[in-house]
Amino acid sequence: MPVETLESLAELEPSYVPLTEAPAPEQTASAREKSENYLYENGAHSGGKRASDVLSIIKEATDKLRSESTEAKVKYTVANVRGVVAEMLSKKLEPSECETVYRLKEFLPASVAIDPYDYYIEMGGLRKDAVLVNNFFETRAQEILPKESETGYLTGDEVNTLKKDTITALVDYENIEKKMNVRNTGRDQLIRWHIQNQGHLLSGKKGKTQNKLLSEALSVTDKRDTTILKTLIENHAEPAYVATTLPDEFLEDTEGKIIGVIEVKAYTPSEVKDWTNALKLSMVQEFNTFGLSEQEKNDRAADAALYDRRGSQVNILGKDMRPTGMRLGVNFEGLRYFINVANNEAPHSALKVNVDLINDETAEVIQKEVDFEYPIIVRLPQDIPNEDILELGSVLEKLNISNIAIQKLPFTSREINEKGFGIYHRFGDTKEMERLKRSIDPSVTSALNRRSAWVE
């Protein structure tokens, strides 16, 4: 770190890995080739989703919009596939390989990009509830566990076995459900059956401790938006499951610590404009109330509620000021919470950087530890105009969202859609997929067979 005076600490900008502002054509061509090759590699995936899962992604999307029109289903489906394809195209690109249009607090330590699914592969895969349970056992279980001299004490092996059984049940829930030949039972009960089936159910005082640990562990996976539960996110009252967000990619340093994330948003140019405009309009309703009457303030508050802005995430409203059903944005706070969870840190912990400082009075060089928000890189398609990205960045800055960079993937949103169309036919038009394809709304699959549904 550079040597600084104490007075300059507030303006300190630590050293960082340079982010490319304008890649050379040959660099872009190389990045595109690497990404395209990976998309069709055997075993290629993003967050555990593979190109060959395209029909499952489509079925999930159409089932979610059962009562909507075919047009709405097709649009939503294409957007979902585009999102997964963009994540896979992004996966092999390091931060220095994408054009960086906007950055705030230029700080990105040396790191490599890694898929969270790969990071947690030994755990059986990536599920937010399983990661939170793992974090509970790594950080809070000892607070609940009786001391070694007390009744009900569990050994380290017994606690670790409980952790492994619980995580296995969460990750492999459907297979365990089939194996046990039960349906519609409660999740918690099924997990307890699984523990018993493994021969790991304890009795007596130990059994009570085991049950209490399990109940506490599962409480951090609560999905209800409630303020009652005591969770990892103590200061925000939201359940840990609600307050944390799975990132598309981790940034891992040389010591295996997660120091940032990459979030891929395969938005079209019009969607980025909608996102920015909705943020600006919601801010007007929220912040510009000086000099207004109480009635005017109440009207503003009602309008702001329609946008339901949470950080940079916001509802997109139609001309009639009604939500269109689309919600755009990045949950920066949730992503940073997840970094804390992955690192087994206290909520709201920041990246600590040692800085050399000079005391002006004694000329003595001292070290001071400075906290920085974990960096987050947002990647958007190549066809988003630079001026729109810069405008979005300035809005995020006004919302006090710090230490972010906005990059461009070396593919346009249209190109990403084309690749979605390609994998739809490559993996969907096979005998193995016939049964799954027949379970999807036929009006949707009929529309998706045509290129126009993907590239209009």
Summarize this entry quickly:
The protein has 456 residues and is an alpha/beta fold. It folds into three domains: 51-107, no CATH class; 124-236, no CATH class; 250-306 and 316-449, no CATH class.
Structure description:
The protein is an alpha/beta fold. The chain folds into three domains: 51-107, no CATH class; 124-236, no CATH class; 250-306 and 316-449, no CATH class. Helices cover 46% and strands 13% of the residues. It is globular, with a radius of gyration of 25 Å.
How would you describe this structure in keywords?
globular; 456 residues; alpha/beta; 3-stranded mixed sheet
Please compute the radius of gyration using only Cα atoms. Answer: 25 Å
Query: Helix coverage percent of residues?
Result: 40-55%
Please give the domain count: 3
Element order: H for helix, E for strand: EHHHEEHHHHHHHHEEHHEEHEEEHEHHHH
Number of strands: 11
By DSSP (H or I, 4+ residues per run), the number of helices equals 19
> Major beta sheet, specifics?
6 strands, mixed
- Binned strand content: 5-15%
